[in-house]
Each structure stands twice: as structure tokens, then as C-alpha cells.
Amino acid sequence: MAVAKDLTARRAPSRSPAGILTAAVMGALAGGLTITLWTISATIFGGLDTTIPLGWALLTGAAIGAAIGTLRRERQTDWGTTLIIGLAAALLWLLASAGKPLGLTTFHLFWGPIASLLALLAAAHLTRYGLRDLQLAAVGRTQLEILLLRILRAVGFVFFLSVVIFPFYFMLISSLKSRAEVLQNPTFLGIDLSKKLVDLFVGYREVLVTFNFWRLILNSTFVAIVTVIVTLGLSILGAYAVTRLKFPGRSLLSRSILLIYMFPAIVLVIPLYSVFTQLGLRDTLPGLLIVYPATTLPVALYMLRSYFQTLPKDLEEAGMIDGCSRLGVIWRITLPLSLPALASVGLYVFMIAWNEFLFAFMFLDSPEIFTLSRGMVALDSQEVPRQFLMAGAVIVTVPIMVLFFWFEKYLVGGLTAGSVKG
Amino acid sequence: MQPRHLGGRLPENLELSFEATQTYFDNGQADPKESKPILQGKAPNILTNLTFSLENFATVFRSSDFWPSFRVTLYYTIFGTIGAILLGLFAAQLLNVQFPGQGLLRGLFLFPYVAPVIAVAFTWAFLLDPLSGAVNALGVRYGILQAPINFLGQRNIPIHLAGLDFRLPLALTAIIFFEAWRYFPFSFLFILARFQAIPRDMYEAADVDGASPLQQFWFITLPQLAGILSTLFLLRFIWTFNKFDDIFLLTGGASGTKTLTVQVFDHAFELADIGAGAAAAVILFAILTIFLIFYFRYAPEGE
Questions:
Q1: How do residues B201-216 score in pLDDT, each as one tens digit?
Q2: Residues on chain B touching A270 (C-beta within 8 angstroms)
Q3: Tens-digit pLDDT profile for residues A339-386
Q4: Would you kindly state where each structural domain of chain A is located, as residue ranges?
């Protein structure tokens, strides 16, 4: 960074009133953030009744910031000093509230003293980290912008992490809570550990056994795997043809792949509904297995085409000279070279088929061939408790998440290569 | 959620009256319930005959909610697209630095995008529930909300801001936020990939010239991202315009969230008029074609 580069400033005094004010503002923001997170966590995970002591948080944070700004040496505050400042602030905070930290209405050993101590230590550390390498002796535009961006960054991390994790956490926790427990304390989102395991997982048992979700898992898996096999088989041939073979209308075909890819499903569903009803394909798995590969094929073609274009032609030509047929070349040379691409396309198609909602919803009427998405709608229309629905949601989500984390690097590569629709 | 007519089954009620004459009983069947009714009907197959009419289009255009739903669609598409791209840009900016756990975070950030829509839609519907949803409960507890709000079921909410009174379309805003939440990972990945292709020495040169971080973002990063941002905008615009599942599952098109796609569904399956539904679909596709022409004209080849 530019800041570390100008060496002359090293000899200048490392603080100024404006610098200490900046540090105090930084500290106040850090304190506000960590104290707010602490009180909300105490409510959500600890089930405690809290208020956010925002004024006190800002004030304490500002004091921490001013102390850290004053005790800097050569643009850094060392670890020990930061720790002592944080501890001192926590001690004062405890004394001021006589053992019951501000914000909590009842005493609780972990969520009270321990958690508030952690929050204030975190505030001190955040302030130290936010001010690192900054030149507080002469606060200029660049220094302020760097500080502003660091603050935005911290806020951004908190924002994105909570926004991404919280709904999934809520889904999981709600699947373990009865309606009475939710109504009793709707802001408590922890697990009641005093319950027996059987009672905790009652939602899962009901959904899997009474509502036959074990069967729907098999259906969904079957549909998704067949879709992957059919799509891969067809798209390998198609993508190969578009990249390697010369035939009239090649570029038109290549472009129209993209066009189909932007076609709205709701427009397709009406003609398919009428035609499939007349052909007797509606409410059958084969019917669904015609629609799914058809909708995933453009994605697969597009992704594989971009990958095949990066493969060298020479190898294939050498294979042809050695007497391989065209299919032999694809089987022996092209496919082994494109295994990573095939993995990511396969995973994508699996994900789309597993998550698909509209066609399953419109086409399937008989419970024994429901996919999980369709089963969830059926569950919803039976007015079951929310706990069961959330257990169902967890059952639908977990396989895709496991798969996704397992093969993350393929998925990320595939996504950017093929711009997968959503 | 209010009860809906689900499953796309056509609501058909036939009332038939029968009269059993004496000859029927004379033939030896004492209980009329014992014989099964035989129903037969004959009609020309509408899919294979050649009679056409524009009546269905007239039905669609004449229906009172065509233009409102056109406007709702535009709002949803424009704000949903911009929201998703802005969030994606912010998230990409956060992860554009090497640090331990970066890969894990990148995976986490993709969660909303890869999770099944049915699961996340139900989860958000419960989170925003006015009676026992966590969002309302927390908002009321910390005094941010005076009373629980039915985010997905209330059409408008009056807002007083700086002396101005206006009505915020609440349910529409909620589904726009959902759209931005669910699809920001898509733009995030593309922007992150593009970030990593920007040559580092551009920033080093800017450092030497004394450019501040915001200046660097404005004059180096944004121009470098212009291509990918416009492509993303067009792609997401088209896909958001086509979106049906998310809206249907969250609100069912109620309380001012009926987009054109929901309109197609309503005509075809809710009102059981396949013809009008198809006409609405054709209209939807005609509008989409305009965007597609834009896309193929302006999107750089190979992106």
C-alpha cells in the first residue's frame, strides 16, 4: 500500500488531535458493531431478553479508540496494549452495571460478563486493525478513504455472512422446534438441549415416514441422475459437432443454443401441458425425463462448447491418422481430456434437475412419483405444522449443499465458463 | 399463505341427472347403484384443427390487470437486476483479497443461488411471517418496528420521509429483495473472475501518482468492469423478466406482485383458460424478443 511507502513520515510525531479523533470515531463504530452483535446473539442464541445499549457502546468504543490512537508507536499499536485497553474497558463496563452488563435484563454468566468482555476485546482489536499503517499525525484524504473502505469492509463481511447464513440456520432450527416453542419465544433461535432426541427430530420422522419423503428422495435422485446421463450423452455429441465439424448452418446453430437458453419456462409450460396431456405423458416420470434434458441441454451444450474450443485439434488429428473413427476419437481423446468440464456440467445439470420446481409442479399429480419439490408443495397444501415443512426444506437442501461443497472448485469453474441460468 | 388452487388441475364440474324407467328394473337389476355409469364424449382435437381466432389476445388485453402487471414486471425486473448486480459487486470487492478462508467464504456466498427455490422461498416466507417470523419478532423487540408487518401480504405501506409522504409497494419490494438476495452470487462470481484479470500494475502506477482508493475504484476498476457489468445486466434482466417460481412461491402473485409470468399462469391454470394463457405467453415472449435482440446486438461475443 502507498501508506507504508513514504519513509519520511516515520520520524514525525505519530499522533495529533485530529488523529486521535479519527481513532475515537473508528473505535466508536467498532464498539457499536461488536456490542450490537453481542446483544443480538444473546437474544437469538441464548434466548435472553436484551436491549441494544447503543449510546454506551459508542461511548465505550470511542474511549477505546482514543486510547489506542494515543498509545501508538510507529503507526502500530502492539497486541499487549490493545489487550489491556480492551480488558480495562470491559472491567469498567462491568463495574458500571454492577455485574449485570448493560443491555441484558437478567444475569447470565456466559452471555453477560464473558460475552461482553469478548465483544469489547473484539472492538479494541478491530480498532487496532483498522488503524494499522495509517498516518494519524496528518490525516489526509487518502488516509480517511482507506479507513472508510476498511470500515465498509468490516460491515460488508458482517452483512453478507449474516444474510447468507441466517436463513439457512433459521431453516435448520425451525425444523427442530414445535409451534408452541416458537410462539413462546419467537426470537430464540437456539436448540433446546433438554429435549429428548426423538422429540427434537419429530419433524424429520413425520416427513420421511408419514409423508413418504424417503420415496421422494429416491424419485428426485432417479430423475436427476437420468437427466444427467441423457444430457451429457447428447451434449457431448452436439458440442463436439458445433466445435469440430464443418456443416452449413453451424454458426446459426451455435448461436441459437444461447437463444433457447433464455426462453422462459412459463412460456414452454403451456404448450407442453396441453400436448403431454393428450399424449398421456403428463403425470409420468418419462414425461418429466423428456422435459428436463430438453431444458438443461442448452446449458450443457454451451458449457461444453466453450471447453472443447480450448482443446488442441492436433491430438485429435493424430488419432484420426492412426486409424481411429470419429467416435473413437471422441471416446479416447476428447472425453478423457475434458473430465473436469464433464464433472462441472454433470453437477450443474444434477443441481438444476434436483431443484426444478415448475414442471414437476405442473406435471405430477400422483404422490408416488412426486419429486421433492412437488412433494413440498403437497406438504404445504396439507396445512402441516411449519416444523414439518422446514424439515422437508432441510431434506431438499442438504444433498445439494453436500454435493456443492464437495465439488466446489468444479462448480465455480463451470459457472463462470457457462454462465448458468437462474 | 392463503389457500390456492394448486396442481394445475382443471376445475370441471359436470352435473348429470338420470331417470330409471321400469324397463331398467324389469331387466333384472334391482339396485341402480350396481351398474357403473358409462360416459362418452366426442370433440374435435383443438391441437390439430385449423380454426384460429384472436379472441384470446383480446381477453388478455381486456383483462383489467394486464397493464398493472406490466408495470409490476418492469419494477421487479429493473430493481431486482440492479440490486443483484450491486450486491454482487460489493461481495466480489470483499473477496478480492487473498486471505485464509477465502475459498470457504466464496462457497458460502453461493448458497442462496444453489439452494432449491422451494426450500428458500418457504424459509423466507416463514422468516417474514407477521405472527411468529423471526424478522418481525426481532424488529419489534428492538423497537425498529412498532408492530409486526406482513411483508409478503401487504400491498402498500405509507412512508414519511423528510416531510414527504409516499406509499412503498411493500410486497413487491420484499420480492425484489428476495430476487437480489438469491441471485447476487451469480454476478458476484463473474465480477470476481473479472477482478482477478485486471493487471495489478495499473494500481501500482496509480499508487505512485498518489490516487486515493476511491479514485482508483472509480477510474480503474469500474471502467475495467464495464463490459462484464453490461453483459450481466442484460442477462439478469432477461432472466428476471422470465422469473416465475420465486414470485409464485412467495406471494402467489397477490398483493401487487402479479408479474406477466404469474399472469400467464393465472390465465392458463387458475382461470382454466389455456388459450388466454398461451396468448399471454406469446405477448410475454414478444416483449422478451426485444430484449433478446438487444442482447445479441450488444453483448460481446464469447462472454
A1: 888 888 888 888 888 8
A2: 264, 268, 274, 277-278, 281
A3: 888 888 898 899 999 999 999 999 998 888 999 999 999 998 888 888
A4: 2-174, 204-418
Q: Is residue B4 part of a domain?
A: no
Give pLDDT, residue B37: 66
Q: Considering only residues A415 and B136, tell me which one the structure prediction assigns the higher pLDDT.
A: B136
Which among B6, B119, B189 is the nearest to A171, CB-wise? B119
Q: Which residues of A touch B142 (CB under 8 A)?
A: 51-52
Nearest to A274 among B105, B274, B285 (CB): B274
Domain boundaries, position B159: 55-298
Domain count, chain B: 1
Q: A134: exposed, middle or buried (C-beta count within 10 Å: 0-12, 13-18, 19+)?
A: buried
Class of domain A204-418: mainly alpha
Q: B138 with B128: CB under 8 angstroms?
A: no
Domain for residue B118, yes or no? yes
| DSSP secondary structure of B131-166 | TT-HHHHHHHHTTS-SS---TTT-SEEEEEETTEEE
* CA–CA gap between residue B90 and residue B83 (Å, rounded): 11
* Residue in A146, A376, A419 closest to B118 by CB: A376
